[in-house]
Amino acid sequence: MPERPRILITQKILPDAYPLLQAIGDVEANMDEGVIWSSDELLRRAPGHDYLLSLVTDTIDAKLLEACANTTPRLKMVANMAVGYNNIDVEAAARLGIAVSNTPGVLSDTTADLAFALLLAVARRIPESERFLRAGKFTGWGPLMFCGTDVTGATLGIIGAGRIGQLVAKRASGFDMRVLYHNRHRLAPEVETRYGLTYTKLDDLLRASDFVSLHAPYLPATHHQIGERELELMKSSAFLINTARGPVVDEKALVHALQAGEIAGAGLDVFEREPAVESELLNMENVILVPHIASATYATRTRMATMAARNLVAHALGERPPNLVTP
Ligand code: DGY
Are residues 52 and 74 in the same domain? Predict the structure, then answer.
């Protein structure tokens, strides 16, 4: 390893991470706010760096990793500034001896807040009624105007009860909700008790819930976890909330379910083919669409950036990065 490793930051991030990296290496960074390098651009720029600090929108596939492994200096690590790392071919990285890290924990509350915000907003028709008011259509209070769905006392189904799912349950307890969950593995009894969670089979959860909130990571096993069959099982009065990953939901099946009235609405932060969104969703009043902002607060994005930087610095100093996802 050269004395000062070469570090590439693929997108403009909040400032606190830069000095941590500049202290140990030579930093090159994309400083064009909002500019996401394409795969070709990454292939042109990344090889020849010891370290990459990447974002969820960067496709770090086997082709890129191989190119980075076959150049001098050889790539040693990808520090992803996200809890999810489905943008990285982790298997290829492991095979090539390239470490990968993520940023768990620091965004859980912020993401749970957004999931709950979407749930409340879609239940109480907030964006829809706001559009109505801004369009100058509010001519007086009406007994039938924008009646929505009660959140207090309703049943929430959480699919994927890890850190974020558990924090959504914590918020739900303030609304006296009954909270069902489905997970790969049943949680320890004390965790179930702490968050008021009842373990439920997936189909039963879908049938019983007034709100279904998705928090599973995107893996081959969760691809289209919510498809035509699952949407049909949901109550016609129920809402789907997705702050996990777009491809966990079959977006075309979701459009169909919404058009057919199989479910009442949806709150979506993530999309199957981001940044593209199924065009039919754009015109649906009962759907809230936000552009993958679940972790977007200044404090959380600062914590994510510095955590990614600290993982990278640890590796460069010969220590074990705290948040490795490769073996
Ligand atoms: C993540 O961290 O995985 C989010 O999707 C981006 O904050």
Answer: yes
